[in-house]
Amino acid sequence: MDRDEPAGDSGEDRLIARFFRPLVTAPGALGLMDDAATLTPPPDHDLVLTVDALVAGVHFFPHDPPDLIARKALRVNLSDLAAKGAAPAGCLLALALPSDTPEAWLEAFSRGLRADVEEFACPLFGGDTVSTPGPLTISVTAFGTLPRGTAVRRRGARPGDRIVVTGTIGDAALGLALRRGDEAAARWSLNEEQRSLLIGRYLMPRPRLAVAEALRISATAAMDISDGLIGDLAKLCRASGVAATVQAAAVPLSDGARRACDADPAVRTTLLGGGDDYEILATVPPAALSQLQRRGAELGIPFTDIGVIEAGDGPVSVLDRNGKALDLARASFSHF
To answer: In this predicted model, what pLDDT tens digit does every residue of 255-313 receive, in sequence order?
Structure first.
């Protein structure tokens, strides 16, 4: 990791040596003893690069378990790699730490990061650590590889393509509501298992790396759902120069989300526009749909058909069971 102080046994040197050097396994990381690292991609492969920043009080609660914060910071980037069809190759970490951050917090944070760099074969190559008077801020840059020219982009959707999503949608948005103690959550009558699942989906995303190859084979366009299903679909449509229609009843829901909808039908708009799903949104030619769904089933990651890509450039249309357009108050999360 880069150092702001002159060479020597500075506080930052000791922090890096104790908490982050033990995570280093890639030879190109040079033991975090240099100003930069090296990475040679496999022959005939492209590098895929992505970066996300997480800020305390915006992307996570300051009192969230530090090991889960670390894992979320890495996983939101791995989700981007999965959507492009890439396999992880490594990551960089930048930490802006309040000066009163206890060592116990750093121990737990590094323990969580170690668990995921090992689970997802995404070694740490370096980064930076600084002190800040503001909130804790974490930035991870991840890089992956894939066969040259095969990255699945946002701009490839074509009229007639089916719109598919992995997993279930909206769980993290409901988990956030539960964490905030929203009054509405008290009316959902969730059991403890359902509450735990929804909160868990908010705390720790599930990057769908297992389906990366299947996306490269079958998808015409893809992205991960980070800011809300409908808003992210609108971004994909703008990049591709197309329109889309989604059947709201087809959007896959967990048991907890379905129960919340039954108790309060207005929750459905939260599910469609809430962020932090980190599922995959993709478009697929009809002839390739069954193959993708079979492969997803084999991997334990279902792909659900929720709509169709159409010619045009209008907003995404979301229809209820009766074919009536739903009016979504918020289609996606936005920082600005």
So the answer is: 999 999 999 988 988 899 998 999 999 999 999 999 999 999 999 999 999 999 999 99
pLDDT grade for 8, boundaries at 50, 70 and 90: low
Domain contains 326: no
Instruction: Assess if residue 2 is contained within a domain.
Output: no
Q: What is the pLDDT of residue 11?
A: 75
pLDDT band at 94 (very low <50, low <70, confident <90, very high): very high
Among 132, 147, 162, give the residue marking a domain's end.
147
DSSP state of 97: E
Give the number of C-alpha atoms closer than 13 A to the C-alpha of residue 229, restricted to the C-beta side: 32
pLDDT at residue 6 tops 60: no
d(CA 225, CA 79): 9
Helices (H), the chain: 11-15, 66-84, 103-119, 171-180, 183-186, 192-203, 212-218, 229-240, 255-263, 267-273, 286-299
Alpha-carbon span 15 to 5, nearest angstrom: 13
Overall number of domains in the chain: 2
Domain that holds residue 270: 154-319
Same domain, 275 and 138: no
In this structure, are residues 127 and 82 in contact, taking their beta carbons and an 8 Å threshold? no
* CATH number, residue 254: 3.90.650.10
What distances in angstroms separate CA 190 from CA 168, 174, 323, one per listed residue? Answer: 17, 11, 30
